């Protein structure tokens, strides 16, 4: 019996099969947008190199590897990362953020020519009415900056993705004029940004659909369209899925969702969902190094991964509840793989994890037997009662050491 016969999956019920056939690309923003978090700082190069290697292992398509105009260290780090990508023959395509001014774009051009690989410029420009009001920008100025930045890249044989900031609060006619100016002058990609996490899944779908249709109507259907989301309202992952369903080509994210304010779309959780949803280029992908990826990001920026963080948190596949533990143990007895999905939507083993059963105040006899047997302690009814009573009296989940100390003769 396979897993498909054990559950009815409403997620895929009546889903357009063409959606899952789409080869969705990913762009990792951990080393640029992720480092804008006010709680972190620019990490040592060794962490950056390690993280980019893990991105390559996870088959992430592209990565924003820094803002080289900001500091000499950033310029040198971006250069070193590009050299590693070149020398080790990575498939990962690098890009660098830049404002729509020569001061920011020229260092990217310089590194690309020096290292000898394409280094896409992610040129960003505010587009919403509130940004235009605050900055005293006219539409004419925005269009001039768009054209000048795009031509500077194209004239120097460097690819450009034109990014509008605050896209999800921008007037559609303004967006249309900016994007058409960019692509008419040679931009091979554009990016829709939910800069302040304003969008809902419905809004995301409407925006992506509108822009894709607009490009097609104007003869630019082959222009790549990216989605860049933030999670101020906790909707970034749902918005990314909505963007994909609306036809987006590439989605941005960061490791464990690091980034300014509440952070960005979490790349790791996005990868998990693309795999579990069965997207063509993810359903058979090896994500066994996803844990190493999230741990590296955590160490790099000195952010602890929350215990209840999806899939990669220490509590993601852990239970001390009696009813849950009993069902997991019964499932494992019938078929080892069932224990992964009877009380979890994520098969732990596919991501290098395992189901953990502990003993706590809400535990039952199944928890006690499982843990005692694991520790090589005779799981008699009396011993089970001893450990369960101790957990209830102390009101906490017991560590294996604490359980062992209750039975010194067997320790």
CATH first level of the largest domain: which class? Answer: Alpha Beta
Query: How many DSSP H or I helices?
Result: 15
Largest sheet: 8 strands, parallel, barrel
- End-to-end CA span: 40 Å
- Rg for CA atoms: 25 Å
Number of domains: 2
Mean of all residue-level pLDDT scores: 92
Uncertain segments are none
Strand content: 5-15%
Taken in chain order, the helices and strands follow as HEHEHEHEHHEHEHEHEHHEHEHHH
Which bin fits the share of residues in helices?
40-55%
**Helix/strand structural class:** alpha/beta
| CATH architecture type of the largest domain | Alpha-Beta Barrel
Record field, number of beta strands: 10
CATH superfamily of the largest domain: Aldolase class I
* Strand ordering within the main sheet: 1-2-3-4-5-6-7-8
Q: How would you sum up the global shape?
A: elongated
CATH fold type of the largest domain: TIM Barrel
């Amino acid at each position: 019996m396979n897993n498909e016969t054990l559950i009815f999956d409403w997620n895929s019920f009546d889903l357009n099969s063409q959606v899952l056939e789409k080869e969705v690309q990913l762009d990792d923003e951990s080393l640029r947008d992720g480092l804008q978090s006010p709680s972190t700082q620019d990490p040592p190069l060794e962490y950056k190199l390690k993280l980019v290697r893990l991105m390559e292992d996870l088959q992430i398509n592209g990565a924003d590897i820094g803002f080289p105009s900001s500091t000499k260290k950033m310029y040198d780090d971006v250069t070193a990362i590009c050299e590693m990508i070149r020398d080790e023959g990575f498939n990962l395509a690098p890009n660098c953020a830049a404002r729509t001014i020569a001061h920011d774009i020229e260092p990217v051009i310089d590194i690309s020519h020096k290292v000898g690989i394409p280094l896409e410029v992610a040129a960003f420009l505010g587009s919403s009415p509130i940004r235009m009001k605050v900055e005293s920008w006219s539409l004419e100025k925005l269009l001039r900056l768009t054209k000048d930045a795009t031509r500077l890249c194209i004239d120097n044989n460097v690819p450009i993705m034109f990014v509008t900031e605050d896209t999800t609060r921008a007037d559609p006619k303004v967006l249309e004029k900016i994007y058409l100016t960019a692509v008419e002058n040679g931009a091979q990609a554009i990016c829709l940004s939910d800069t302040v996490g304003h969008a809902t899944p419905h809004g995301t779908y409407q925006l992506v659909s509108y822009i894709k249709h607009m490009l097609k109507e104007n003869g630019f259907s082959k222009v790549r369209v990216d989605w860049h989301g933030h999670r101020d309202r906790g909707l970034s992952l749902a918005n990314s899925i909505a963007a994909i369903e609306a036809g987006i080509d590439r989605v941005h994210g960061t490791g464990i969702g690091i980034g300014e304010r509440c952070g960005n779309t979490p790349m790791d959780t996005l990868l998990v969902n693309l795999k579990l949803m069965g997207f063509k280029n993810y359903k058979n992908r090896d994500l066994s190094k996803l844990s190493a990826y999230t741990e590296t990001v955590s160490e790099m920026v000195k952010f602890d991964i929350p215990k209840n963080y999806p899939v990669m948190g220490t509590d993601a596949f852990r239970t001390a509840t009696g009813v849950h533990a009993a069902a997991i143990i019964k499932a494992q007895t019938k078929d080892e793989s069932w224990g992964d999905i009877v009380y979890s939507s994520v098969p732990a083993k596919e991501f290098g994890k395992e189901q953990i059963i502990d003993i706590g105040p809400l535990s039952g006899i199944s928890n006690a037997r499982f843990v005692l047997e694991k520790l090589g302690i005779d799981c008699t009814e009396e011993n089970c009662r001893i450990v369960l009573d101790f957990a209830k009296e102390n009101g906490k989940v017991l560590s294996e050491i604490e359980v062992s100390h209750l039975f010194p003769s067997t320790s």
